[in-house]
């Protein structure tokens, strides 16, 4: 592994963990009442996601682009661009949070996603 790749990995992983932590806080706190209503996603859709997918591939599976939660430029993170998004689930408070590192899906998690009949 090159020193640049090691550096990106050393910086990227802690930053992604912080971003996911912030995203989970936003999920559990219920967010703002002024949020725009979006279509919801299901657990089945979420389970089709894989690491290293592009946003376009994710949108193809989930059906729409989620709400941008945070974004950092490569200049802020030694060349690594990090963007985190949330998608609402079908039940109140259910959400998925996805983190993209340099345009590729890295960490992703959900709270309360279900499949409705």
In round numbers, the mean pLDDT is: 83
Structural class: alpha+beta
- The name of the CATH topology is Beta-lactamase Inhibitory Protein, Chain:B, domain 1
Q: How large is the share of residues in beta strands?
A: 15-25%
Low-confidence stretches: none
Number of helical segments?
Answer: 3
Q: What is the chain-wise order of helices and strands?
A: HHHEEEE
For the record, give the distance between the C-alpha atoms at the N and C termini, rounded to a whole number. 47 Å
Task: Outline the biggest β-sheet.
Answer: 4 strands, antiparallel
Question: What's the architecture in CATH terms?
Answer: 2-Layer Sandwich
The global form is globular
Q: Order of strands side by side in the largest beta sheet?
A: 1-2-3-4
CATH class: Alpha Beta
Structural account:
The protein contains three helices and four strands, in the order H-H-H-E-E-E-E. The model has no long low-confidence stretch (mean pLDDT 83). It has 117 residues and is α+β, with helices and mostly antiparallel strands. The chain has a single domain, classed as Beta-lactamase Inhibitory Protein, Chain:B, domain 1 (2-Layer Sandwich), CATH 3.30.1450. It is globular, with a radius of gyration of 15 Å. Strand 2 (82-88) and strand 3 (95-101) form a beta hairpin. Strands 1-2-3-4 form a four-stranded antiparallel sheet, covered by helices on one side. Helices cover 34% and strands 24% of the residues. The relative contact order is 0.23.
């Amino acid at each position: 592994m090159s020193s640049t790749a090691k550096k990106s990995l050393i910086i990227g992983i802690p930053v992604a963990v912080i971003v996911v932590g912030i995203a989970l806080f936003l999920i559990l706190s219920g967010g703002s009442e002024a949020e725009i209503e979006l279509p919801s996603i299901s657990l089945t859709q979420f389970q089709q996601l894989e690491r290293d997918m592009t946003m376009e591939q994710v949108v193809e599976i989930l059906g729409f682009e989620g709400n941008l939660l945070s974004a950092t430029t490569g200049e802020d993170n030694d060349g690594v661009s990090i963007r985190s998004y949330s998608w609402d689930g079908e039940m109140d408070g259910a959400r998925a949070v996805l983190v993209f590192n340099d345009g590729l899906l890295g960490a992703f998690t959900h709270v309360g996603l279900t499949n409705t009949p």
